[in-house]
Amino acid sequence: MKKLKNIATISIGLTVCMWLQACTQTSEGTNQSTAQLQGKLVLTGSSTVAPLASEIGKRFESQHPGVRVDVQTGGSSRGIADARRGTADIGMASRALTEEEKDLQSFAIARDGIGVILHQDNPVASLTDEQIVSIYTGKIDNWQEVGGKNATITVVNKAEGRSTLELFLNYFKLKNSDVKAQVVIGDNQQGIKTVAGNPNAIGYVSIGTAEYDITRGVPIKLLPVGGVAATTQNLQNGTFPLSRPLNLVTKTSPEGLDQEFIEFAQSSQVQDIVKEQNFVPLSK
Length: 284
Description:
By secondary structure, the chain is α/β, with parallel strands linked by helices. The protein folds into two domains: about 35-110 and about 245-275, Periplasmic binding protein-like II (D-Maltodextrin-Binding Protein, domain 2, 3-Layer(aba) Sandwich); about 115-235, D-Maltodextrin-Binding Protein, domain 2 (3-Layer(aba) Sandwich), CATH 3.40.190.10. It has helices spanning about 1-35, 50-65, 75-85, 130-135, 165-170, 190-195, 205-215, 230-235, 255-265, 270-275, and strands at about 40-45, 65-75, 90-95, 105-120, 155-160, 185, 200-205, 220-225, 245-250. Strands 1, 2, 3, 4, 5, 6, 7, 8 and 9 form a nine-stranded mixed beta sheet that branches. The protein is elongated and about 65 Å long.
């Protein structure tokens, strides 16, 4: 009887040991899986997507200490070209891919819109599409002609290669050669700083970026487009006419670290970051 009791005790002991060993191996396996996710990711492109990608990158790094995410701007055209050449792991584009770019892969991470901005002290509260076209083509060159002060209008335009420029021109049915600009800027922040520093300037930038800066006291305001207020809410409900996807772009179907980052950037784990930057999260 005593012998049988000892055998039972040994059997239980072995079972517990085996269970503990399995748990340890599972835990170690999980740690090894996390540790295996390491390396550097280079993202280049859209100045609209860059701040969002940067914040997502910081959270991704915090979950994967062996990973570094390097985000560089330069416009959507650069992001697409770098992704195609392989000089960037992932490109950033604040627009949909064109027919000529369909050899690439794109992954939407949020939506944004383009809004017309004035200095907050400019008394003009709205402009029709026709008035905006007349201002950008030089037919209207004084704010007095559209209900403002007697002051010369400073037209701020985007540089070639910026998706914001392409979408603005497409919506207002303009060619870039039609635009009579006094100032040509690159990224959104340059546009916002130019208008914030000039009470007579007019420009156009990402709605998300503009709203973000307005909440932090930057002296600009967004005008309606097509009679619809330029707000994140109207982007969400689909009524704002000048909207666009914010995309991550790769040369081929992403694998490994690229795939992990893109899936993370599209997940519910970063929707709070998307909202904090005044962009519209994707509907799942």
